[in-house]
Amino acid sequence: MPEIRGEKIWLDGKLVDWDDARVHVLTHTLHYGVGVFEGIRGYKTDDGRSALFRLGDHVQRLEQSAKINLMEMPYTQNEISTAILETLKANHLEEGYVRPIAFLGEGAMGLYPADNPVRVAIIAWPWGAYLGEEGMERGIRAKVSTFSRHHVNAKLTKGKTCGDYVNSILAKREAVLDGYDEAVMLDTQGLVSECTGENIFLVNDGQLRTPQLPTILGGITRNSIMQVALDKGMEVVEAPITRDELYIADEVFLTGTAAEVTPIREIDRRTVGSGARGPIAKLLQKAFFSIVSGNEPKYERWLTYF
Predict the structure, then answer these.
(1) pLDDT band at residue 129, thresholds of 50, 70 and 90?
(2) Strand partners, 207
(3) Category of 233 on φ-ψ map: left (φ > 0), alpha (ψ -120 to 50) or beta
(4) Are 286 and 228 within 8 A, CB to CB?
(5) Residue 134 — φ and ψ, nearest 5°?
(6) pLDDT score, position 1
(7) Residue of 67, 160, 232, 298 with catalytic role
(8) Distances from the Cα of 23 to the Cαs of 29, 105, 107, in angstroms?
């Protein structure tokens, strides 16, 4: 992937030069992983403006993730939202990816962080299709990981916590080293959970199915696609899914801020459906990009223009 580079980063209440946004090596989150973050996309709309997709929902989840991890945010949701818009403008971005992150700074070491300050940074940079333009159109190859997704009481699954993604990195590395693009992760009961950074859907006989919420992060793009599908008259079901149901599905696709709507054409060397992007994935993909391009008044509430 290309090097991430920009002009300014928002750090602890002010914009600083990209190379000056530094933290100490004793930053608590660096050692122990207790921090929270979001990924937000901005799009150039067809009328020439730019808009962030579901900004308020992302900022709300950032605050909720902090609360889950006993981190007291030093900024309100409105202040974070304003800072995100300032960061985009300071980097002269018409579209791109935004990463707000709250982390525990230097101070006490050990597993109890005591009074270490909660620090906040916001980074923005250009970013294309996470799983590649070809993957968006043709579909990607995936494998079921040997690593299980988090159990609901082994960690708190509703927070988007930095350290949780060690699990994702191990699964992603395994998949890529084995020649695949992505990993499908099962929960501790052996049921389909999610992928390393995306939610998963399957289609059978026109019905859209996705795993239930307990062991997955309730993705904002997942929620959006479910609403769009319902509005288009599709049957949408949240229910347990076994790995063999993925093999025999008519279609399988992923959703996420980074992945957007990405079809899967093969899982564990089994061809999914026709081995190409299916009609439901294509329909929902088209609808999603029409929304973020500002062409769907019904979903205008999901866009924050900047």
Answers:
(1) confident
(2) 204
(3) left
(4) no
(5) -65, -40
(6) 57
(7) 160
(8) 11, 8, 12
Question: First and final CA of the chain: distance in angstroms?
Answer: 27
Residue of 90, 66, 86 whose CA lies nearest to 76: 66
pLDDT tens-digit readout, 21-39: 999 999 999 999 999 999 9
The answer to pTM > 0.90 is: yes
pLDDT tens-digit series, residues 80-113: 999 999 999 999 999 999 999 999 999 999 999 9
Total residue length of the chain: 306
Measured CA to CA in angstroms, residue 245 lies from 58, 108, 175, 270 at distances of: 31, 48, 20, 11
Q: What percent of the chain has pLDDT over 90?
A: 91
160 tagged catalytic: yes
Residues 6+ apart with CB under 8 A from 14: none
| Strands annotated E in 113-218 | 118-125, 140-144, 182-186, 192-195, 199-204, 207-210
Element counts in the chain: helices (H) and strands (E): 8, 17
40-44 and 260-267: which strand pairing?
unpaired
